[in-house]
Batch of 4 targets.
Target 1
Amino acid sequence: MTLQIGIARADITPPVGIAMVGFAGRDVARDVHDPLYATALVVDDGDTRLVLISLDLLQLMAGTVDAYRARIATITGIPPGRIILACTHNHYGPSVDRDEADVVDSYREHLSHVLAGVAARATDHLRPARIGISWGLSDIGIAGSGAMASSSWATIGTVPSTDRSASPASTQRTDSPWRRW
């Protein structure tokens, strides 16, 4: 068995003027502060191929996910059940499903083509690779999800019952370990 991995990234920054989501009372985008990306990771063990695509978006509705999976499957040959779309839950991103404006509909359709393309490029970039996984504990990124009672004061801070476990993963090309994907 030879494990192969391919990675590709695409800019999914929407046009200025699209409705924004993430907080109540959001207006339309007036400017672009940082680009938004979709990053595809294709993994193939010789028997099974799958793709994980991370998107800098708040969320996607189930119907949109189904449509995107179908389009990606058509382009890549990867079955829809092996296509994972994961949003970073970006509260400063565009509406994809919530508004009926023409610009949102156009962006949603455009995104289907971009996602199929980035999955196809990641598939084209398949190279012999290995995956490393580790386990440990981390206090980085652990924040209070609510107020903790401290006598008569409420304190925001680390929640003692928070799961501090971390399991970072990394990939490395075996054909040229120091080359970037």
Note: The chain is about 20% helix and 30% strand.
Target 2
Amino acid sequence: MPPVPKGEWQLLMVTMNRKRLQIQSLWRGVVRRPAPKGFTLIEILVAIAIFSVSILGLGVGAVTVMKANKTSYLHTIATNLAQDRLEIMKAMTVGTLTACSTSSCDSPQPTFDGVAFTRKWAVAAGVPAAGFTQITVTVEWTDYAAQTLNVTAVLRQ
């Protein structure tokens, strides 16, 4: 066996394994461990934190979109209620138009999806000019906040 250069190898180990000669060389100094496979606990915790924040953001966005959809739906219903009352009043003669400024103008009170709507209307003769009558229908309701919708029409007397 050739001599081992000094400082390069510390030990040559010769063993007999199942009728074969096996030569193992041990590197001088600290034995190197193989590179770790997988993730560390800190990497997993950081990944979970990032994932949690992103899911939370999506959840908040979904709730906001759902609230906006419900508000738009109720606004559409309020617009239809105001237009309905306006069409009824436009079909009447100008002399028979009367105002209603109390919350009991409609009986029964219109309710959709558990939200009660209140309709009020005002009639102003001679507005915006002589020979005209202005009708303003106001619809009020409360969903996430108090809401008010005004629809105005002008009729010729």
Note: The longest strand covers residues 132-142.
Target 3
Amino acid sequence: MILVGDDPASLSYITAKEKALAEAGMKSRDLRLPADTTEAELLALICRLNGDEKVHGIPVQLPLPAHVSEERVIVTIDPAKDADGFHPVSVGNMVLSRSGFLPCTPHEGTHSDSHQPGRPLATMTVTVAGPPESGSSDWFRRCSWRRRTARWIPAILKR
């Protein structure tokens, strides 16, 4: 896992991810970088990890410091190692219900819907709220693709 800086919420989230990985018996590399790491340095690290056969997934904890482009970081990750499912190829695979890494929130949400027994999920209305970067727009598209009635409220949340 790559963490740039020391955002308290990100540190807490990384700690939870590491615990979950350990409980699942999975190995994880903890790559914590200082907040002043340059974009070029981060992209070079990702390129090295892309080429490392021992690395199967590259999660990058967001948000990144303001001087680093999240978009450039995300598209630099090999889609086959995109553990967060944010690469455009991964998002496309999710929307089309193809295999590959999927964003956790929209994927889990579409599979954990509670519903009335005997009522087809396609007949339900789904309301999705959240800013696009949270995965809400992906969840909305996935619900729409499955022919559900879906509403998306692109709420603006303060960080």
Note: The chain has a mean pLDDT of 77.
Target 4
Amino acid sequence: MAATDALIELATLFASDPTLRDEIALALNDPAAYLQQFAERLSERGIETERPDLAWFALLDGLKARELAAELDWKSSAKDVLYGLKTLVNVPRDVWDGYAEECDRRVDPDRDSFVECYLQIADLRTSPHGLSMVTLDSGGDSYVAALLETAKVARATELADKAGGLGALSHRQGTERIGSRGAQ
């Protein structure tokens, strides 16, 4: 399977919206046109010229534009992560009730990687709904977090690997013991 086919199939695992596939195909087949059409979106990333991973960013930004992913800074607080996760349209809203408080109970800011733990807690909360928290590599110090049907995670990981470049997808699988404080 070619990297381009892998990237298009990966997009379909996240969204059935054909316009997302169209955006990725444009980035693959006519990067100059993609740069022109999505200049504002790309300027936030400092992307102004063609580059080999442009289609990967088309996927990330396309998911964000459709509220299927949230970009989180590595040093975000639990409340900031919660704000980003609440924008995701593919999860029941009650999943987030008490989320920030649970993060505060479980995570020791002096010992734990905040956002990693916060995303693992989010995975615990979404897994009963058949959803898994995944992150897609943005090449920087932020996490692009998205929810994906749990049954699709293995295939998505495989496709991201085949996509090459920044094509890295990680499942932020939660366990009962998250952070140095555990379940408390």
Note: Strands lie at 69-73, 131-137, 142-149, 169-171.
